[in-house]
Recover the amino acids of this structure.
DNA sequence: ACAAAAGTGTTGTAACTACACCCATGT
DNA sequence: ACATGGGTGTAGTTACAACACTTTTGT
């Protein structure tokens, strides 16, 4: 393809002005009690010292998804998490450096997969209740991400992405309750969850349990895909 | 704000290459029997003569939403339809002119509000079953839009956006059946729809009816907003 | 009068809610 | 032994699916 720019001493020249494009990732984790967000402290202006979502500028040889994945990996070490487009945020004055449009993604990760990061890295988990004022329009993006996460949780088995591979049903319930801010009856929740048929029962031994150990399960993705495909799935919370 | 470019004889110069940004709108209508899509025939290369969604380049003084609304108005005369972000499409080679990233929107309109358009305008409704091969990656975008439309229809009262202000329940049912490609029992559909409490009964006189005239209703948006707000809403199809 | 579409009511079934007791483990 | 949390079963209620007849209107 012939390039769509003219290279000049001042840089890449275009006939009409263009916005720069970035990708940002709102990364959620769950510590067993509260929803957490992974933030990075900015080392440079603008908003130096403020916390923000990991992200960065799109290159000309990658899609915006590839950009999000790459930046996420560079800044947090995370590889291939569950990730979805959230939306594009394009307010004219959202970035003091000029016209920069961002595509936000939301990602769900198992917190265990991020601990042990490089200490020099200014990345930290914040419980949702203690998120500081963020850089740019990231406060706004976070609200949109939360709304979307809750909507998706009602009908998609995304809770599993936030828990360890092996989890107990009470653990899963705590997650649903924390995210949706509602209370489920223990017995009914367990019944309904098992009735979906997308859980595989393993040996009983929840190491994190403080009293009686909970039976461990894992998410049966193949079964889920199959049921989703032929419409036998009953999944609604 | 200081500009983020340097103006040169060759155009607007940036330190790093940038993609151009466009907005495209997938516009759906309903003729009473089948879902329709509004397309525009391209008058210039690339893809001259091929059909595509209305859309165009984002300006530096507008958001991508404002761009979508503006282009839609310029190309079809439509004003303030129901419109939602669909997603961003950024494949590196999706446009032969260079690196152009598009944000797709989907819009729902009452077909009556577009008829009577300028004849010179190369805009036309196509039934979904007769959509030609489209320009760029618009075939792909259309598939994504359809998937999204169906998902949304299950839980949001968006069907009303596609019907005239006054409609009968059988009309509404035909719309649901056409879009979701399933069949509802007439009695149960009517019962469930009325039970939502978001319909206002008007005088009986459906002019388009061919035999017995259907009772006309209109969508009670205030009631819907109220019920949505305090969680009393039961709406699921 | 007949055909086509609209309106309505009941009954069986399946899913959801509410609820109480026993069991395992750590202190 | 006691406190904490995990596991299970039942009964009442509610929503949903299935189904048939009557009414209106155009031909």
């Amino acid at each position: 393809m012939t390039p769509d720019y003219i290279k000049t001493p001042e840089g890449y020249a275009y006939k009409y002005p263009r916005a720069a494009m970035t990708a940002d990732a709102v990364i959620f984790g769950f510590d067993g009690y509260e929803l957490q967000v992974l933030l990075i402290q900015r080392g440079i202006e603008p908003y130096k010292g403020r916390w923000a979502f990991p992200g960065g500028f799109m290159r000309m040889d990658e899609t915006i998804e590839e950009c999000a994945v790459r930046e996420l990996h560079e800044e947090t070490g995370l590889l291939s998490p569950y990730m979805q487009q959230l939306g594009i945020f394009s307010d004219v004055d959202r970035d003091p450096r000029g016209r920069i449009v961002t595509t936000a993604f939301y990602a769900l990760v198992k917190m265990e997969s991020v601990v042990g990061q490089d200490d020099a890295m200014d990345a930290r988990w914040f419980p949702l209740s203690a998120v500081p004022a963020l850089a740019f329009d990231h406060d706004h993006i976070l609200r949109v991400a939360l709304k979307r996460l809750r909507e998706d949780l009602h009908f998609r088995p995304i809770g599993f992405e936030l828990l360890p591979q092996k989890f107990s049903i009470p653990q899963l319930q705590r997650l649903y309750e924390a995210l949706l801010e509602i209370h489920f009856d223990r017995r009914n929740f367990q019944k309904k969850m098992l009735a979906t048929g997308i859980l595989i029962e393993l040996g009983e031994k929840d190491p994190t349990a403080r009293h009686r150990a909970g039976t461990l399960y894992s998410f049966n993705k193949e079964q889920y895909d199959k049921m989703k495909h032929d419409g036998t799935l009953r999944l609604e919370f």
